[in-house]
Amino acid sequence: MRSIFEQSRAGRRGVAFPRLELPAEAWEVAVLPEGLRRAAPAELPEVAEVDVVRHFTRLSRLNFGVDVGTYPLGSCTMKYNPKFSEDLARLPGFAGLHPLLPQLRRGGLLAQGALQVLHDMDLLLCAITGMAAFTMQPLAGAHGELTGIMLMAAYHRDRGNAKSVVLVPDSAHGTNPASAAIAGYKVVPVPSRQGVMHPDDLKPLLNQSVAGMMMTNPNTLGLFEPHVKTIADLVHGVDGLMYYDGANLNAILGQVKPADLGFDIVHLNLHKTFGTPHGGGGPGSGPVGVVEKLVDFLPVSRVGRRADGTLFLDYDQPKSIGYIAPFYGNFGVILKAYAYILALGGPGLKRVAEHAVLNANYLRVRLSARWPLAVDTPCMHEVVLSAAESAQRHGVSALDVAKALIDFGFHPPTVYFPLIVKEALMVEPTETESKENLDELVAAMERIADLTESDPESLHAAPRTTPVGRLNEVEAARKPDLSYRGACFG
Amino acid sequence: MDFIPHTDQDRAEMLAAMGLESMEELFAAIPPELRARSWELPPPLGEMQVTERLTRLAAMNAHGLTCFLGAGFYDHFIPAAVDAVIRRGEFYTAYTPYQAEMSQGTLQAIYEYQSCVCRLTGLDAANASLYDGGTALFEAAMMAVRKSGRQRLVVCSSVNPIYRVMLRSYTANLNLELVEEDLSDPARAAEFIDERCAGLILQNPDFFGRVRDHGGCFAQARAAGALSVLACNPLALALVKTPAEMGADVAVGEGQSLGLPLSFGGPYLGYMAVREPLLRAMPGRLVGRAQDAQGRQGYCLTLQTREQHIRREKATSNICTNQALCAVAALVYLSLLGKQGLIELAEINLAKAAYARSRLTAIPGVSLVDEGPWFNEFRIALPIDARLAASRLIDRGIAAGFPLGRYYYDQPNHLLVAVTEKRTRHEIGLLAEALQAVLEEYPLS
User: Fold this and answer.
1) Do residues A263 and A68 touch, judged by C-beta distance below 8 A?
2) Which of A340, B78, B202, B328 is deepest in the core (most CB within 10 A)?
3) Cβ contacts of B245 on chain A, cutoff 8 Å
4) Domains within chain A, CATH numbers bracketed
5) Which residue in B127, B313, B422 has the most chain A C-beta atoms within 10 A of its own C-beta, making it the best mutation to test that interface?
6) pLDDT band at A63 (very low <50, low <70, confident <90, very high)
7) pLDDT band, residue A490 (cuts 50/70/90)
8) What residues 79-98 of chain A have any CB closer than 8 A to a CB of chain B?
9) CB A246, CB A274: distance < 8 Å
10) Which residues of A touch B348 (CB under 8 A)?
11) Residues 409-468 of A with CB under 8 A from B
């Protein structure tokens, strides 16, 4: 589709800001000296409001979202995003609130509603995970991971521990090792057996240099780690800390609390577990919770309550790791998750986990006749299939299956992850998909299995129903074209 | 209330298909001793009750305060079309565009956003966004460390203090040296820029609203083999000499001023742009143009081998989720304003701030701290503690500015005042009158 730049015509305007009100002399001084001015104007498009609205409406129609159809992208939890919370985040009392207002003397009194949201969320997330306290500041899941590892480092520094290693299972999300590395740790991978971690594989890796271990549970194969408590005891035995990657908390809401499994630090993805929209890649929100012994290290500020019942921001935390975000997190996202948790309540959250697991196992049972499972056991909220056989026998890879699903009107599952499964297809239906939707997905996958045998070529040519076919990514990376270089037209 | 569509019959059929009798059996893989012993959460509410509760909480926050508070985060007007676009479900209920064929909307929008950031900064390549200005500054600093193999970061004390405390927190475990000095005088900067310096980090307009040419400092950095990083308010770039023109290698900053609400601190938008040679060292997602087998033009995520999902611990950053929807909002905003509109808006900001400056400095006892030029913010010295003055002005319905004593202990009487296009001549007059009245209550000893 033509870019917004190509639709530009010199002199055309979208929104105008008329020059009003000021005395003439104010305009005269409002000129930067020549040496500080940019040589030429930034060549932004010149378009009318109607052009802008049509351009982006047309672009939106080239996109697939949860509002369009089933989006079983494993690990990403693409559940339905309620609409009412969108309205609530836009209430002027929230959307118009300056983050520095509470830092003015008595300004905190003018933001009591917002502080109440943060305070309530802290308590709710503690009740959900069993942790002692939460910071709402991390701006995404990976940012929560980095915060968590910084907390780990602060704990060891405080205790005079010389630690240099973070253990990460081979099935982990790439963000785990990357976060540990950015926080200054060496990453040592832990192998898994039949998709789960075994204490005997961990023991040889444990020594006094281990700062902690990062675990996702259920893990990225959608399996609950049965030895988690033993593993936690072993890690604690070398004064290591257990980190819980909350990417898959949606599977165990109301069933299990990470604190009971021996975890010391958890991050949650509000945009996965608590139904806030993914925004085409963000914004997310990644609050971090800790057990009692780590509370003093949480980032500043924290919401406290005064004797008179009013809330305030507490900056007096000498052991804190400091500031990991400018203010109090992605407040607009936190607000939507808050509305979601209030609406569902305890029983609703429990139903989320039950139906997420029900849907995934239903798909497992229905699909496994035609698509081999990565690990042939009941799963939790997602099921990982392997296209290794179809790739070997018929030349139909996981990517081919994914692209074929697009033509059936589905967003594909996550492919080639977890890395330990060959030709992985990671399917996470979420609890908000009905049985009919799942049956249609199964029918599409069965049809693709048929085509794998009868007409594999047709699958290589998929997708055919989209505005573009498979793009040449190798060429795109070899000669990157990352911005529009042409002039604006007109 | 929940969003689960299953009927009793659905559940029965699904359980039967897998040979189970109860939902409880679905969790058989979890050892019984690990099951939660309590689940103390509130009862469910209807949409109406939640709406009532949050509406009440929203009303407990100050609205109707006249806002001269800035300090890097500004009360700008947002045209309605911005929200109309980003509320389309096709945009906001999608995820990262891994499947390019069904994500051309997000991908093309991000490509156009990247193009706009390049045009504003004058640099060669921009990423698809980072979380906020502060984390973008940290990512730029880490790029400087990686590229130079050096351990010292030199940061000017007029870089937003919030970003500087973030940088301190992030580098605490990294064996890096952080030098924070007033480098507004290039001669002084020379003391710190040598072969040990990984990167020089400056801001323009700086935290005090001053517009300067940092070309001299950056030339020194280049000669010393250090990376030059400039944090900029993108709205100011409509007028001000670009990071590229000043010789910066990396531009970063907070994109909130481009059509994002203040929203009590987020979600905001970190932008980053670099010179071409730094492209493959850049963190974050990148969208590039590509062709399909039939020669049709499209867009896809590219240069992914830098990223965590491929490189794991060797990635340029751990970032995964970014601020895509905020980047789309910024693009819509920039498209609506356009080439001329953004310039005019920046000029209005400049002029209104100039007018406020003239009004405020006419008050006995109030003086300017700095010499110009400024953009839309400036600091004034008061005869009394600025926190006290600001607190008294809140009683009069005005958020008068940011008292600098909070971050600069030697500036207890300094107030940082921001004036955007939203502040009317009348409101500026009210601020001046209210400040004068407050100061008159505290006669100078």
Assistant:
1) no
2) B328
3) 38-39
4) 5-60 (no CATH), 87-342 (3.40.640.10), 351-475 (3.90.1150.10)
5) B313
6) very high
7) very low
8) 79-82, 84, 86-98
9) no
10) 17, 19
11) 411-412, 414, 417, 431-435, 463, 466-468
Please indicate, yes or no, whether residues B310 and B227 belong to a single structural domain of this protein. yes
Mean of pLDDT over chain A:
96
Which pLDDT band holds residue A359 (cuts at 50, 70, 90)? very high
Query: What total of structural domains would you count in chain B?
Result: 2
Average pLDDT along chain B: 96
- Closest residue in B to A106 (Cα) is B391
CA distances from A280 to A159, B90, B271 (A): 42, 9, 17
Residues of B with Cβ-Cβ distance to A342 under 8 angstroms? 42, 45, 49-50, 53
pLDDT digits (tens, 9 = 90+) for B391-422: 999 999 999 999 999 999 999 999 999 999 99
From B35, B56, B83, residue closest to A255, measured CB to CB: B35
Domain boundary among B295, B313, B332: B332
pLDDT score recorded for residue A23: 87
pLDDT at residue number B444: 64
Determine the distance in angstroms separating the CA of A447 from the nearest CA of chain B, rounded to an integer: 20
Residue B300 falls within a domain, yes or no?
Answer: yes
The range of the structural domain enclosing residue B129 comes to 80-332
Residue B152 lies in a domain: yes
- Domain assignment present for residue B385? The answer is yes
Among B332, B364, B388, residue at a domain's last position: B332
Q: Is the pLDDT of residue A257 over 70?
A: yes
Q: Does any domain span residue B351?
A: yes
**B324 shares its domain with B355:** no
* Contact at CB, A345 and B41, closer than 8 angstroms: yes
- Predicted local distance difference test score (pLDDT) of residue A108: 86
Cβ contact, residue pair B95, A76, below 8 Å: yes
- Cβ-nearest to B89 among A67, A106, A228: A67
Helices (H), ranges, B69-179: 80-86, 89-92, 104-121, 133-148, 161-171
**Alpha-carbon gap, residue B209 to B416, rounded angstroms:** 8
A114-123, A378-387, B172-181: which range is least confident on average?
B172-181
A121 CB within 8 Å of a chain B CB: no
Both B355 and B423 in a single domain? yes
Of the residues B101, B168, B204, the best mutation for testing chain A's interface (the one with the most A CB atoms within 10 Å of its CB) is: B101
pLDDT single digits (tens) A65-79: 999 999 999 999 999
Q: Are strands B270-274 and B250-254 parallel, antiparallel or unpaired?
A: antiparallel
Yes or no, beta carbons of A53 and B81 under 8 Å apart = yes
- Average of pLDDT values for B167-188? 91
